[in-house]
Design brief:
Layout (H helix, E strand, L loop, with lengths): L5 E4 L13 H13 L4 E4 L11 H17 L4 E5 L5 H14 L3 E4 L9 H14 L4 E5 L1 H4 L5 H8 L5 E4 L4 H13 L5 E4 L5 H7 L3 E3 L7 H11 L4 H18 L4 H11 L17 H24 L11
Parallel strand pairs: 1-2, 1-8, 2-3, 3-4, 4-5, 5-6, 6-7
Length: 316
């Protein structure tokens, strides 16, 4: 079993103009992420538009991820299997395990309103359907449900092995983290964003899923390496620059921003899936190109300024 750690990508899916998955372009993008030292892939989540796909299409994405991992066997792949219904989530989890995924993750069932017992039964069914680790994905903005320490503890009793959190609620996150640490639990927590990454790092946590990896994976790698040093001044400077960059790049839906940021670098960004669409805005593309060049130079400057032993070379 691959150890899940470091910086993972909530990798986007490239579509064709006819709304079909562009398997070749998606594979090439995900391989490029691995070449740029991304530690793992989170498949068919929010960025990947899994909720807009059929289960057959999500299986197609799982197969693409397995092919990419074959080239980088030391990297990890997590299948997001969350669905509006339990049967689909369990089916996807079983298929992911058969294919060799390192773990599965799921948001709570969405659209309808469910009570906590129903959400518990949904997760319990997923957990019991596979032998690989199951992560609960706390994303209250999309699922409408906010996890609590009590609920996570209840799921741990039936075998939950991890949590991906996109709430960035540090009262909740710190409660889960220190409950795990103090009680020495076999439980892994992943921060689901670069937002608050420095605070997460300073707590001693080691894993995030960062959306910027879709278009500047080299930057996230270098920031990770800066965070692995004991130079707090360098960490604060790098994180401040990262936050400023994110505020400029994330001006609309994060998946759309990822496509535009790829396009700004002259990379193939393809299409997204309706009802989402990629705007044809040459001015915004130029602005993104300038911002991307600047963040790369700025992070390299931090590394040089503090004389950190980190490779400045990026894979294009």
């Amino acid at each position: 079993m691959t150890k899940i750690t470091g910086v993972l990508s909530p990798c986007i899916t490239i579509f064709k103009e006819n709304n079909e998955i562009d398997e070749a372009a998606t594979f090439n993008l995900w391989v490029d992420l691995f070449k740029n030292k991304v530690d793992g892939l989170f498949i068919s989540g929010s960025y990947g538009l899994g909720p807009l796909m059929t289960k057959e299409e999500r299986i197609t994405l799982f197969k693409i991820a397995v092919r990419a991992k074959e080239l980088f066997p030391e990297r990890s792949i997590i299948a997001h299997v969350g669905a509006p219904d339990t049967e689909t989530a369990v089916y996807l989890a079983k298929e992911a395990e058969k294919m060799g995924f390192d773990a599965v993750a799921a948001v709570p069932p969405w659209y309808n309103k469910y009570n906590e017992d129903q959400i518990f039964d949904y997760f319990k069914a997923i957990i019991e359907s596979v032998s690989i680790p199951t992560y609960a994905y706390n994303n209250p903005k999309t699922s409408g449900y906010m996890f609590t320490l009590k609920f996570v503890n209840k799921l741990q009793e039936v075998g939950l092995k991890g949590l991906k959190d996109a709430s960035v609620d540090f009262k909740f996150l710190s409660a889960i983290y220190y409950d795990t640490k103090v009680k020495n639990k076999d439980f892994h927590i992943i921060l689901g964003t670069e937002n608050c990454w420095l605070a997460w790092n300073q707590m001693g946590a080691d894993t995030i899923i960062g959306g910027m990896t879709n278009y500047v994976p080299d930057v996230d790698f270098k920031v990770k390496e800066i965070f692995n040093t004991d130079n707090l001044d360098a960490k604060v400077e790098a994180y401040t620059l990262l936050s400023q960059f994110r505020s400029k790049v994330l001006f609309t839906d994060s998946t759309i921003c990822s496509h535009l940021a790829l396009k700004a670098q002259g990379k193939y960004a393809g299409y997204t899936r309706a009802p989402l669409s990629i705007p044809d805005d040459s001015n915004k593309t130029k602005e993104l190109a300038v911002s991307i060049e600047k963040i790369r130079n700025d992070i390299d400057h931090v590394i040089s300024k503090y004389n950190l032993n980190i490779d400045l070379v990026s894979v294009s």
